[in-house]
Amino acid sequence: MKVGVDGVLLGAVSHFGQAKTVLDIGAGTGLLSFMSAQKTNAEIIALEIEKDAFNQCVGNVKLNKKQDRIRVLNISFQEFYQTTQQKFDFIICNPPFFENSEKSKNESKNVARHSDSLPKEDLVQGISKLLNFGGTFSVILPFEFEKSFEKLCSDYGLFCNRKLIVFPKSDKLPNRIIFEFSQEKYAVKTGKIVIRENDTNQYTKEYKKLTKDFYLHL
């Protein structure tokens, strides 16, 4: 799977603080794990259920000499949270989005893109078990899920502290939202970002500023 704007933006804007342990759910090729390693000194566990993506993530960890920081597991999130005793200061996830939509003939893409393997309630239930008190859960979703996902999280004792509303262009409706949740209630801080210029289709100055530390060429 290619590295996309969603993952880069999620990693760039997430507030890791002084996290000592990070969990990356659905790591893919390792993008968010590497961004976490760049922004923190934490120990990172990366979960990836799809075998080919898992193997590539393991290879990327070795190529970047991060074996001492990033541990990659070929396991479902459901199995992991039901069996582990570990808790985490920061949990990050760019989850499979699509529900009830046409699937690809490529099963690897289906696992990465569709929510069958990780329903939202399974995700939230597991995070409520694994998150340290005072920790943060950061996630990006389609904007249409804003209200329903916030309600689901509150049902499991996770409360929204930050929202970043993502617009593909300034003349378009928002298509993504980034949340940060914790087990403590605070006033919600809400912001917005536009990804591309209307006329040129180039990245906006704001997007470049936020993500420049993670691109070789931007």
Number of strands: 8
> What is the chain-wise order of helices and strands?
HEHEHEHEHHEHEEEH
Fourth-tier CATH superfamily name? Vaccinia Virus protein VP39
Mean pLDDT: 91
Estimated share of beta-strand residues: 15-25%
Outline type: globular
CATH architecture assignment name: 3-Layer(aba) Sandwich
- Describe the main β-sheet briefly: 8 strands, mixed
- Give the N-terminus to C-terminus distance in angstroms: 20 Å
Q: Fraction of residues in helices? A: 25-40%
* Gyration radius from CA atoms, angstroms: 17 Å
| CATH top level label | Alpha Beta
**Number of contiguous helices:** 8
Q: How does this structure look, described?
A:
By secondary structure, the chain is α/β, with parallel strands linked by helices. The chain has one domain: Rossmann fold. It contains 8 helices and 8 strands. It has an 8-stranded mixed β-sheet with strand order 3-2-1-4-5-7-6-8. Helix 2 (31-39) links the parallel strand 1 (21-25) and strand 2 (43-47). The protein is globular and about 50 Å long. Mean pLDDT is 91; it is low at 106-115.
